[in-house]
Design goal:
Layout: H1 2-79, H2 84-88, H3 94-105, E1 112-117, E2 122-125, H4 140-146, E3 153-155, E4 159-160, E5 167-176, E6 182-191, H5 192-199, E7 210-213, E8 219-223, H6 239-245
Length: 248
């Protein structure tokens, strides 16, 4: 009897041990799941906060450019540059060139400011005086405003500027004449490296990518981007399009 009792007691102890082991494994698994969920939640919050900060920095940069656009437009109106002839004569006006240099000094992010006539010819560019002949009829921002009386700011695809060859993002705004017809453009060029320095902060979080896109889905800048996707379009199936259509 004692042998049978010992065996029964042994089986009972084995069953208890197996139960405890199962409970321990379950507890460990549950703890790992909780920790993973917490890490995912923390990473999501960190990414969201970082995206908000980067978006705000970008927004402030564009707002300051828009203020300069408005200041230049007001100055052109005060000069009476509301016809094509008067606008073209600014090419010989050193005072206008100096005033644009003053505007440029208030834009730490900008590399140049330029005035372009309705034929795509550069009237003034802050990089050089007197202004050399430069034809910009092939630029996307010129074609956009030539064919559209858009009152907003257009963000062009990154391209090499004609003077230095450095990759630059051009912000442009249309100017109309006294008859509300296309007179030309004001353009501010910002080096791609300016945005790269801002977005470099995301390297503190592994596997993070930042995209700066135009509202039509054109990629202006992707960082980091070993394949240079600037000018590419977001895929049609991307949830980004739905987010934009909903005002996001």
């Amino acid at each position: 009897m004692s042998v049978l009792a010992d065996r029964s007691r042994f089986r009972f102890l084995v069953a208890i041990a197996a139960g405890l082991l199962t409970a321990a494994v379950f507890a460990i698994g549950l703890t790992v799941w909780w920790l993973r969920s917490d890490e995912i939640g923390d990473a999501t919050r960190d990414t969201g906060n970082l995206a908000t900060v980067l978006a705000e920095q970008t927004n402030l940069a564009v707002q300051s450019i828009d203020l300069v656009f408005n200041d230049i437009q007001e100055r052109l109106e005060n000069l009476g540059a509301r016809t094509q002839d008067n606008f073209g004569h600014l090419q010989q006006d050193k005072n206008t060139y100096d005033s644009l240099l003053d505007n440029l000094s208030h834009l730490s992010q900008a590399a140049l400011i330029s005035l372009i006539d309705k034929n795509g010819q550069v009237v003034i560019v802050t990089q050089k005086w007197p202004t050399p002949p430069i034809d910009l009829t092939n630029r996307d921002y010129f074609q956009h405003f030539k064919n559209s009386d858009d009152k907003g700011i257009y963000v062009g695809n990154p391209v090499a500027d004609h003077t230095t060859g450095l990759e630059t993002i051009f912000f442009a705004k249309r100017i109309n004449d006294s008859n509300n017809e296309f007179l030309g453009l004001i353009v501010v060029g910002v080096r791609v490296t300016y945005f790269q320095r801002i977005y470099n902060s995301i390297t503190s979080l592994p596997d993070q990518i930042f995209l700066l896109l135009r509202n039509d889905g054109t990629v202006i800048l992707r960082y980091p981007d070993p394949k240079d996707r600037g000018g590419k379009m977001m895929p049609e199936g991307s949830p980004w399009h739905l987010l934009v259509s909903q005002g996001g």
